[in-house]
Amino acid sequence: MENQDRKRLLIIDAALKRFAHYGLAKTTMTEIAKDIAFSKALLYYYFPDKLSLYVSVIEHLMHQISRDLVKSVEKTSSAAEGILMLVQKRQAFIQKYYKLIEYTKMMGPELPDELQDKFTRARAFELKIITGLLNKGNASGEFSVADLNFTTEIFVEAISGIHFNILNRSKIIYPDKEQFKLIFLKEKRFTEIFLAGLKQTNRS
Q1: DSSP states along 92-141
Q2: 143-172 average pLDDT score
Q3: Region of 23 on the Ramachandran plot (φ > 0 left; ψ -120 to 50 alpha; else beta)
Q4: In the chain, what are the domains?
């Protein structure tokens, strides 16, 4: 790895730790530079502002999560098990990096283009994984799904709705451990009901 690439990665890793623990608003470029014994000038050489660093952190994190998710899903023995694994990994990711991701909600409805692009790609990747698992279930006789893409969209939107509904009802920004536990239990139960419905269709 080139020295410049190594320094850039060190900055991203340090920023990820800060953003995940304190959130973006409460983290300064000075603190990040101090954590890795870099000068502020060097930090700004690689990233002209905090937003550009945040975008790079999001991109780096999504690459890590994508690789981990693919490996975990590949180890499952059935399509249903793979989808349940995805839900579990998804929730663990949200819980661990909630302060990092939640900042995007504070930006309002109009995200910067560079951020919108990262989240659009992440959603497309998630949809692709789930569609692939449903297709795998069709091929094995585990499921009988007529419209894979539409079914995938319904599933992802419903899972996301559970998360946001609980938080909006509680009128909170940062959920505690018990609320995360409730979110995951409801998402897991919904997934089980959803998958059972696909299997029921196969038996009819």
Answers
A1: HHHHHTHHHHHHHHHT-S---HHHHHHHHHHHHHHHHHHHHHHHHHHHHT
A2: 86
A3: left
A4: 1-48 (1.10.10.60), 53-203 (1.10.357.10)
C-alpha–C-alpha distance, residues 20 and 89, integer Å: 17
The reported pLDDT for the residue numbered 204 is 45
Question: How many Å apart are CA 92 and CA 104, to the nearest integer?
Answer: 19
Element (DSSP H or E) covering residue 175: none
Tell me the average pLDDT across 24-42. 93
Cα–Cα distances in angstroms (integers) from residue 145 to residues 50, 94, 190, 192, in the given order:
45, 28, 17, 16
3-state SS of 140-174 is HCCCCCCCHHHHHHHHHHHHHHHHHHHHHHHCCCC
Maximum Cα interatomic distance, the chain, rounded to a whole number of Å: 66
Q: How confident is the model at residue 77 (pLDDT cuts 50, 70, 90)?
A: very high
* Concatenated DSSP letters of 17-56: HHHHHH-STT--HHHHHHHTT--HHHHHHH-SSHHHHHHH
12 has pLDDT over 90: yes
| Exposure on the CB side of residue 193, measured as CA atoms within 13 A | 9
130 φ, ψ (degrees, to nearest 5) = -65, -45
